Inverse folding.
C-alpha cells in the first residue's frame, strides 16, 4: 500500500507537534523514523493509525485521502501499530488475545491459525498461558501475529526494542525483513536508536521539532 502525507500539521494549543510534513512511503520498504524525544514521531504515526486527527493536511492511501480516520477504520484499511507496551488483556490467555477483532473461529481453528503463524515466524508461544505472564517481547510477538492475522499492509513499530532481549530483537528484525521482502508490506520503525535504524532500515526519515529534516 502506498502511503502519502500531504502538508500535515498537528497543533495542541501553542504546541506544534508536526509542522508541514509531506512524504511518501512505498510498499516493500522498511523506513526508520528518527528524532529526539518530542520531535513528533509518535504523533505522526498516531495520525496514520487513526488515534488522532491532523489539524490540517491529508493522509492518502493508494492515492485516496482518508477522511474521518479512526483506529478501527485504519485497521480495516490495513494499518496496524505495534506499541512499546502492547495493547492486550493480561488476564486473558494467549489464544484469546490472538482472536480479538479477527475472524469468527472456534477454539480449535484459532489454535491452528496461531500455530501456523507462530511456526512461520519462529515464535514459540504457549496458547494456554495467561498473557500477563509473558515477557514484553513475547507480548509483542503475540500482538504482531494478531495484526498479521488481521491482514495489515502497513506496520508501525513504536520503540519496539525497549524492554526486550537481544534474541527477541533479532527475531523481530528478521520478521520485519521477511514481511517487507516476501509480502510487500510497508514497515515503519520508530526509534531514537540510530544503530538499530541503520541495522534494520532501508530508508531513514528524521524529524526535528515537529518538522521533516531534509
Amino acid at each position: 500500500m502506498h502511503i502519502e502525507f500531504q502538508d500535515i500539521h498537528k497543533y495542541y494549543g501553542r504546541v506544534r507537534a508536526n509542522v508541514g510534513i509531506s512524504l511518501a512511503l512505498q510498499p516493500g520498504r522498511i523506513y526508520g523514523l528518527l528524532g529526539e524525544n518530542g520531535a513528533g514521531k509518535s504523533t505522526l504515526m498516531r495520525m496514520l493509525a487513526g488515534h488522532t486527527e491532523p489539524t490540517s493536511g491529508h493522509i492518502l492511501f493508494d492515492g485516496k485521502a482518508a477522511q474521518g480516520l479512526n483506529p478501527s477504520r485504519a485497521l480495516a484499511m490495513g494499518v496496524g501499530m505495534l506499541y512499546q507496551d502492547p495493547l492486550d488483556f493480561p488476564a486473558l490467555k494467549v489464544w484469546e488475545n490472538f482472536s480479538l477483532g479477527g475472524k469468527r473461529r472456534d477454539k480449535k481453528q484459532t489454535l491452528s491459525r496461531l500455530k501456523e503463524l507462530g511456526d512461520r515466524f519462529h515464535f514459540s508461544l504457549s496458547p494456554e498461558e495467561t498473557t500477563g505472564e509473558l515477557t514484553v517481547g513475547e507480548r509483542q510477538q503475540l500482538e504482531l501475529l494478531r495484526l498479521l492475522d488481521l491482514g495489515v499492509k502497513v506496520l508501525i513499530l513504536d520503540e519496539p526494542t525497549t524492554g526486550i532481549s537481544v534474541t527477541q530483537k533479532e527475531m523481530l528484525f528478521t520478521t520485519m525483513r521477511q514481511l517487507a521482502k516476501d509480502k510487500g508490506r510497508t514497515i515503519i520503525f520508530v526509534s531514537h536508536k540510530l544503530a538499530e535504524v541503520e541495522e534494520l532500515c532501508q530508508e531513514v526519515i528524521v524529524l526535528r521539532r515537529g518538522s521533516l529534516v531534509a
